[in-house]
Structure formats: C-alpha cells, structure tokens
Write a structure and sequence with these properties.
It is a single chain. Helices cover about 80% and strands about 0% of the residues. It is mostly helical and about 190 residues long. It is elongated and about 65 Å long. It starts with 7 loop residues before the first helix and ends with a helix.
C-alpha cells in the first residue's frame, strides 16, 4: 500500500479495531503539522513533542470510544486544548510565585497576621454557606489534613462521596471568592 493511500476516516476505522500500523500512518501524516502549529505558539520543541505524544497516546487509549468525523480538525483541536492548558498552568504558577513573593516580603508583622486571620474568616464564612456534610468533609480534608480514605471511614461514607463533596466545596469557593483571594487560598491549602 502506498504512503497515505488510505483516507483519514479509513485509518480511524482501522485504529478503532486496534491496527497499530494505521495508527503509525496517522501519526506520520500529522506529526509535523501539529509540531509546527504548537511550536509556533509555545516555542519549546521538547514540550511540543510531549504534547503531540500525549494527544496521540490519548487517541490510542480511547480509540474504541472515539467518533471522529474530521480527523485533522480533531487532532488540531486536541493539540490546541493541551497548549491552552499548559499556558493556563504557567500563568497560574506565575501568579502563585508572585503571591509567595508578596507574602514573603510582608514578614511576620502584625499586618500580615491580621490579613491572614481576615482571609481565614472570609473563607470560613463562604464555607459555612455549604451544606453541613460538605462543610464538614472539606474542613477534615483541608484544615485537619485527613486523607479521603480516613474521612470516608470516619463518616462511614464512600471515598467517591468524599471526593465529590470536596470538589463541590472547592468549586463553591472558586465561584464565590475574588481571584486574588483564590491564589492565597491555593497556597494555604497545599
């Protein structure tokens, strides 16, 4: 069979059935385009190679469940999403570092202690708006540093319920707190 004789849709059908050679052909067909696209944004060859590898690894792992109409658009969108996720991660990391720098410059003076106490009260006020069980699980997890398994055992509930309640509380805080408080919150709950 000549190189690229198969259509993208033919390859996807064969990939869905576990055909590794079709997967390799699809990889060879799009790797360079995806690399140029992502490297044009990130300007980091190694990172771009990793991103493309992740996209294709994910494609292979989910091959039996994927319904792809336009393979090229799907691959570019997957790479675009991973690039955007990386950029968001870098921005958040930068904000955290800036917050740490600000906090470390404050020192242990009375103003810093007062601000932390005020922040803790603001967070606690927002948490108390949650249902009692959700509030209790979040406090055990984030303030008393219990593991999800320990919380589940203590409250006689499933680990999945614990995870869901922590996620619900975190989402509530994200939606109700100002962005600048969120950075500090993340730093406090590490």
């Amino acid at each position: 069979m000549a190189l690229y004789e198969s259509t993208d849709n033919d390859l996807i059908i064969r990939i869905r059935n576990g055909d590794k050679s079709s997967f390799e052909e699809l990889f060879d067909r799009y790797w360079e385009m995806l690399f140029r696209f992502s490297n044009g944004i990130l300007e980091d060859e190694e990172l771009c190679q990793d991103i493309i590898q992740e996209v294709f690894t994910d494609l292979w792992q989910r091959r039996k469940r994927l319904l792809i109409e336009n393979v090229k658009a799907f691959l570019f969108q997957a790479v675009r999403n991973k690039v955007a996720k990386y950029i968001r991660h870098i921005r958040l990391k930068r904000k955290h570092l800036e917050a740490i720098a600000k906090l470390s410059g404050v020192g242990p003076g009375a103003d810093a202690i007062y601000e932390l106490k005020e922040l803790r009260q603001t967070i606690d006020r927002h948490l108390k708006a949650l249902p009692n069980r959700c509030y209790q699980i979040f406090r055990l997890s984030r303030f008393e540093h219990y593991s999800n398994k320990e919380i589940a055992q203590q409250l006689n509930i499933s680990i999945r319920t614990v995870e869901t309640q922590i996620s619900r509380a975190t989402r509530h805080l994200r939606e109700s707190l100002k962005p600048e408080l969120l950075v500090t919150l993340v730093l406090l709950f590490r």
